[in-house]
Amino acid sequence: MRTKHEAPSGHLGFVIYHPEHGRHYGYARAPDEWVKLFDKIKKRDTYIGQYELAAALAAVTSVPAEWLRGRPVELWVDNSGAVGALVKGYSGVRDCARIVNMFHFAIARARISSLWIDYVPSESNPADVPSRLHEMSEAEAKEALSEFGSVTEMTPPKLSDENGDWLSSIEIAKSVWRA
Predict the structure, then answer these.
(1) What is the pLDDT of residues 85-132, one digit of tens each?
(2) What does the alpha-carbon distance between residue 178 and residue 89 come to, in Å, rounded to a whole number?
(3) In angstroms, rounded to a whole number, what is the distance separating the alpha carbons of residues 174 and 12?
(4) Fewer CB within 10 A of the end CB, N or C, for the chain?
(5) Spacing of C-alpha 56 from chain mean position
């Protein structure tokens, strides 16, 4: 939430259950440049929709491409607006539309055989655990993460420069390409 003197921040998380590579989780703080970028478009109290979309994108681009290539993938998100945008492949919100576009680019690049996207209530969403690590003590985090396997570095996409200006689609694509 935005306070009078502080811009909103966000934390991203994902959990992967892979039939061959086991369980993995990732987490990252949303880059400060994102708030500058989103504020230039429309200043809001929170950017949860944008963060949810970017977390979906980062989950796809943070794991080795061979884990996804030729496989069916299920993506569960606890934000109905993000689910709708990802399923439709479009959003009427400009910043969300660009993130959704890049998500579908990443899906195509990963050569996923099929994609199922659905809503999951927050209390049932395992990805909420790594996205809330910053709120937990070390002991709480260790216990909460015990069933999620090993950590995988989460790499949020580079959407903007340090001034909060959109990068070109080519530059954004390079940030998710991870060749």
Answers:
(1) 999 999 999 899 999 999 999 999 999 999 999 999 999 999 999 999
(2) 22
(3) 20
(4) C
(5) 4
